[in-house]
Design a protein that fits this description.
Strand content: 15-25%
CATH superfamily: Aldolase class I
Helix content: 25-40%
Order of helices and strands: EHEHEHEHEHEEHEEEH
Number of helices: 7
Distance between the termini: 6 Å
Number of strands: 10
Radius of gyration: 16 Å
Largest sheet: 8 strands, parallel, barrel
CATH architecture: Alpha-Beta Barrel
Length: 210
């Protein structure tokens, strides 16, 4: 089995950047969606990205933004990767000159197959739990058996993951990466270094034994 990567999303504090990097996270996510309790300003994101060590990927999360909103962020924040978590088209996602991933909120298995077809230029497809009121960050899992074995793109598993279930989730779904936010928090937007370490330890354990 290939090594499963880990992204810690919803980073808002410098100490959480360091805690995630020290624990071995491959990527950090910064939320540019104002209704989110984990949203960061452009200025704050620039400081956090500047504090991110080499070889840790920085990801900007957007939900149905206007093009100028993405460009305004990129003018100040040197993000490595974009993540679109709304109803954006492939053409929209493609226009910013950055690698990007598309997130979908899964209600049925055909949705995942369709998304692979709709977003062939994406660097990955992130599958998350559906909540009618939220664009991610719900803390809910979904039926992982809906994920197809045939995957034209790297698959990133999100939704309700924590140190207690991530090993089982990886063994069942065999994702390219896992994405966690609430599962490593003390409160919304405030990460807990101990929980980050526990989560990364579980991912690493599966990587070493499977």
């Amino acid at each position: 089995m290939k090594r499963v990567r880990t992204k810690i999303c919803g980073i808002t504090r410098r100490q959480d950047v360091q805690a995630a990097a020290d624990a071995g996270a491959d990527a950090l996510g910064f939320v540019f969606y104002k209704p989110s309790p984990r949203a960061v300003s452009v200025a704050a994101a620039r400081e956090l990205v500047d504090a991110t060590p080499a070889f840790v990927t920085t990801v900007g999360l957007f939900v149905n933004p206007q093009p100028h909103e993405v460009r305004d962020v990129l003018a100040t924040v040197p993000l490595d990767l974009l993540q679109f978590h709304g109803d954006e088209s492939a053409e929209f996602c493609q226009q910013f000159g950055r690698p990007w991933i598309k997130a979908i909120r899964v209600q049925h298995g055909e949705q995942i197959v369709e998304a692979f077809d709709l977003y062939p230029e994406a660097s990955g497809l992130l599958v998350d739990a559906y909540d009618p009121a939220l664009f991610g960050g719900s803390g809910k899992t979904f039926d992982w058996s809906l994920i197809p074995d045939l995957r034209p793109l790297p698959l990133i598993l999100a939704g309700g993951l924590n140190s207690a279930n991530v090993a089982a989730a990886i063994r069942l779904t065999r994702p390219w990466a896992v994405d966690v936010s609430g599962g490593v928090e003390a409160s919304k937007g405030i990460k807990d270094a101990g929980r980050i370490n526990e989560f990364l330890t579980e991912v690493q354990r599966v990587n070493e034994t499977d």
